[in-house]
Amino acid sequence: MKNPTDLESRINHILDSNIRIIQYSVYAVGLIGLALVAKSVHIFSKFTSSKAVPREFVTKAVKLQGKVNRIEFSHQHQYPVKQEHQPRYAVRFHVEHIPIVSLWTRKQDKILEKPTSLLKIELAGVNLRTLDGANKWIQLPLESNPIIWFRLYGINSEANLFYASVFLKWPWWKFWKEKDLSLIVLKHGEGVVASYLPISHQVYFNDKYPAYYRKLLYCAIKNKKYN
C-alpha cells in the first residue's frame, strides 16, 4: 500500500483537527439555504394588501389560506349582450391571510396589538342570481368554519382586490376533496357564470383562468340540462 505523501498527511491532519468546525460549517450552509428558500416562497409572510402579494403569485395561480372576516354582496350593473336584465351579485370576501408558518406572525401581532389588515377577494367567474341562497351555501358554512383556501386567478389593482376561486375547508378525514364554492353555487342553481372581464391596465388575469372559466361554463350548462 502506498504511503501518503507529506502534503496528504498535512491535509488529513488539518481535517482531523477541525472536523467539528467543518461539520458545523456544512450545517450552517444548509440552514442558510433553507432560509433563502423560505424567504423566496414567503412562508413567514403575512399579506395585508394586494400590493404586498408578489405578482408571481397571481401569475402562477398560487393557492393561499385565510380566515374570512366578513362577506359582502356587490350588485352588478353590467350584463352580457341579449341577456335578460336581472340582478346579479358579486361575492366578495374580506380575508385575513394565514402564512404557511403562522406561529411567529400571530404571536408578534398579539404582542404588538396591531389591527389586522384584510385581503379583498372576489369570487372569480360566478355571480349570484339572488341573495336567497347566499345564507345556505356561503354564510352558514363559513360561520361554522371561516378558514378557506383561495386560488389567485386575477387582480384589480385599482380596486385593490383579487379574483380567486374559493375552497371551503373540509374536516381532516376528507382532506383529499376540494369543495369549490363556485361549483357548489352553480350546481344548486343559485348562480350564473359572470361576464368574462377584459384585461386592462387595472385588471389582469393569468393564463390559467380561461381553463377554469370553461370549467364553470361546463358546470352551468350541465346543471341547466339536467335540472
Automatic annotation (TrEMBL):
The cellular component terms of Gene Ontology attached to this UniProt record, alphabetical and capped at eight, are: extracellular space
- Print the keywords alphabetically: Membrane, Transmembrane, Transmembrane helix
Top-level taxon of the source organism = Eukaryota
Residues crossing the lipid bilayer are 21-44
Enumerate the InterPro entries for this protein: C3orf33-like
Kindly provide the name given to this protein in its UniProt entry.
Uncharacterized protein
